Amino acid sequence: MDFSNLNKQTSKSFNQQKNLIKQLMKGKLMDCPKCKQAIKLYLPEDKVKPGARCAKGCTDIDLEFS
Ligand SMILES: [Zn+2]
To answer: How many domains does the chain divide into?
Structure first.
């Protein structure tokens, strides 16, 4: 098995997620690439698991705050 392509894809989507979070942090409105609904950013003070999620759940990125 050759995992090199998989790793490349993973890091690419990782970078996309990082970029998405960055835009959300700046207060930009971002749409989920799948369902086209707004992605909401959840911060630790929101008392839910921090992350970026759309209403349907196809975008679900966990965030870790230290
Ligand atoms: Zn979605």
So the answer is: 1
Query: Which uninterrupted H or E stretch holds 49?
Result: none
Residue 20: name the closest of 8, 38, 5, 2 by CA: 38
Q: What is the pLDDT of residues 38-66, one digit of tens each?
A: 999 998 888 888 999 999 999 999 887 66
In single-letter form, the type of residue at position 59 comes to T
Tokens at residue 18, please?
């990082």
Q: Alpha carbon of 39 to those of 1, 24, 48, 64: distances in Å?
A: 35, 8, 15, 17
| Cα 55 from Cα 32, distance rounded (Å) | 9
Kindly give the distance from the C-alpha atom of residue 1 to the centroid of ligand 1, in angstroms, as a whole number.
Answer: 31
User: How close is the Cα of 39 to the center of ligand 1, in Å?
Assistant: 7
Q: Residue 47 sits in which domain range?
A: 4-62
